[in-house]
Write a structure and sequence with these properties.
The protein is an alpha/beta fold and about 350 residues long. It has a single domain, classed as TIM Barrel, CATH 3.20.20. It contains 17 helices and 8 strands. The protein has an 8-stranded parallel β-sheet. Helix 10 links the parallel strand 5 and strand 6. The chain is globular and about 50 Å long. The two termini are about 15 Å apart.
Amino acid sequence: MDDIQSFIRRLPKAELHLHLEGTITPATLVELSERHDSAPITLAAAEALYQFTDFTGFIEAFKAVTRQLMHAEDYELAAWRMMEHLAEQGVVHAEVFISVGVIYMWRNHDPACFEPIFEGLERARLRAERELRLSIYWIFDAVRHFTVPEAERVFDKAAKMRTEYPSIVGIGLGGDERRCGSEPFRGMYAQAREAGLRLTNHAGETTGPKAIWEALGIGSERLGHALSAIDDTRLIQELRARSTGLELNPTSNVRTGVCPSFAAHPLRRYFDAGLLVTINSDDPAFFGSDIANEYLLAHTEQRFTRDELRQLAVNSIRASFLPDVTKASWLSKIAEIWEWE
């Protein structure tokens, strides 16, 4: 077991579906609470927040944790802790969701509130480049079950800020799919594309294949979760024909109750069908599994061989929004590891 874990950590890989707020551990939550609360939360109470049994419970826990992110220094701390852990796992590049829609909602919908917060995130990112040799891109995430104008504020902010900050690579739609699909955001996705932003979308996590078709229909380049695609053979064929990057999160789906077990997750079936699948941790502090452990579970629960784990790492680089020249460099390094084994 130690040998395969060492192999996984040596693999250069990208994480493409990771929520900054979902990386905040109970210990860091206590530290943040000590900064802000007259009666700080205890570690035991913090750990209890992370215990939930369904998707609705997860959303409520997520909101409770993110309320402790008040200042730029809080975001910088959370981001740096996340980046340290990514580097420890052999992650060389990550594309990280920031819940900009939530930030606006809690700050009276004031678009000007975000720049100071983002400066804290950028300080952590630049430090990670220098000290960890880890590259980070930011994806501004809107909440689909807030109003359409709220999402528009998020996407407009991404388009305006990316001229100064090339690290802002794309936009996404998170939140509760059961309450709002993708179609209302078609115009915004077209405008984001024209602004040079890449297009991601959570689709088919708690909904059926129709939601995935809808996400593809508005131009989504990469899809988060896509759990229900397995129920539609024609959709599988379409995803393969388009080489759509799939940001799969098996343990997340198990913990939120939308998949019965890691072994039952369609990861293996998607992989065998030739889809561009990547494996990710989503909200590792909440779900108790980081990306290295997801690779390990793919090996132990779904019998992924070393060569297949390498292919997952290759897929993660190919599906990333990195420049082609950078992709080629990392793919070459993965090939070198292939030759060593």
